[in-house]
Amino acid sequence: MSQKPIFRTATVLFKDRPAGVLSELSSGGSVFTYDPVYLTGASEPVGISLPLNIHAHSWMNELHPFFQHLGPEGGLRQTQARNASLDFDDDFGLLLAYGADCIGAISIVNPSATPPLSPRAPIESGNAADVLGSRTISGVQPKYLAKGGNNSVLPAGMHEAATLIVKLPDERLDQLVTNEDLSLRITRLLLGDAEVTEARREFVPGVTGLALVVRRFDRAQAGRKLRMEEFAQILAKPRGQRDTGKYDSSYEECAALIEQHSARPQVDLARFFRRLVAYVVVGNCDAHLKNFALVETPGGMRLSPAYDVVNAYYYAGQGYSTRFGLAMNGDYQQWEKVDRAALERFANAIGLRPGFVKQAFRDFESQGTRLFDLVGKHNPLVGELEKIRYEDVVRSAWLRLFPG
Question: Residue 233: which residues within 8 A CB-CB, separation 6 or more?
Answer without folding.
Answer: 47, 48, 49, 65, 66, 69, 70
